[in-house]
Amino acid sequence: xxxxxxxxxxxxxxxxxxxxxxxxxxxxxxxxxxxxxxxxxxxxxxxxxxxxxxxxxxxxxxxxxxxxxxxxxxxxxxxxxxxxxxxxxxxxxxxxxxxxxxxxxxxxxxxxxxxxxxxxxxxxxxxxxxxxxxxxxxxxxxxxxxxxxxxxxxxxxxxxxxxxxxxxxxxxxxxxxxxxxxxxxxxxxxxxxxxxxxxxxxxxxxxxxxxxxxxxxxxxxxxxxxxxxxxxxxxxxxxxxxxxxxxxxxxxxxxxxxxxxxxxxxxxxxxxxxxxxxxxxxxxxxxxxxxxxxxxxxxx
Length: 300
What we know:
Largest sheet: 8 strands, parallel, barrel
Function: Involved in the methylcitric acid cycle. Catalyzes the cleavage of 2-methylisocitrate to yield pyruvate and succinate.
Protein name: 2-methylisocitrate lyase
Strand content: 5-15%
Catalytic activity: 3-hydroxybutane-1,2,3-tricarboxylate = pyruvate + succinate
Radius of gyration: 22 Å
Distance between the termini: 44 Å
Order of helices and strands: HEHEHHEHEHEHHEHEHEHHH
GO molecular function: methylisocitrate lyase activity
Keywords: Lyase
CATH topology of the largest domain: TIM Barrel
Strand order of the largest sheet: 1-2-3-4-5-6-7-8
Shape: globular
Structural class: alpha/beta
Number of domains: 2
CATH class of the largest domain: Alpha Beta
């Protein structure tokens, strides 16, 4: 029997070295990450909202919208996908439906957080969080809702900005006790807080490297030495793509053409390879051949 996406992700999480997790916002970006040799993907709620709706990470994207894009990302490659499900979109009942919906879309795991609904980016100001009791209900609901026991549950706390580092560590340990497979303390503001999290949380840890955000961007080997199991770069690829788009548009506007951009573009063959043109042409040719063979055999 084939391994489920959750089982595959768990195998990667069980290794000694940390899992490097790139955030992707579309099936095309998922394909590029696969071709680059990554082993797993993160469907970033913030990035998908930015890319799909052109809107900020303020809880503006609906559950079904995010699940649909996450499912397309999961379908695009054989890689397991950890999907951001924000707050779970309500109380324990909403969390139950959300987890089942995302699982039906083929993801390997889900990440749920303890902000109020609607939430906001973990590196924005003026965040608010629910009580520990309410978040524990969300975590228990997520654990109970999964049909595949290998579906990975990640519990995130944004408590540092609201209640301080000690509360964040307490919450992280509670969420692990409730059944979260990984815990994610968002937006630590110093290396000292990163070390305190690693020392104080008795569960596998995920950390998010946000360039320009609240958390210092450290080298993967330093984070690994602290004990982080997953190193997430949630929106680095999106931001690089935006920079490339800005460059292309400015040059096109200024020069009226693309001659000065040719050496910066992916080549025509590289573009077609990323979307698997040859595979689709092969399907087309095979179907045409089968139809022609049957037609010729009948002699019509």
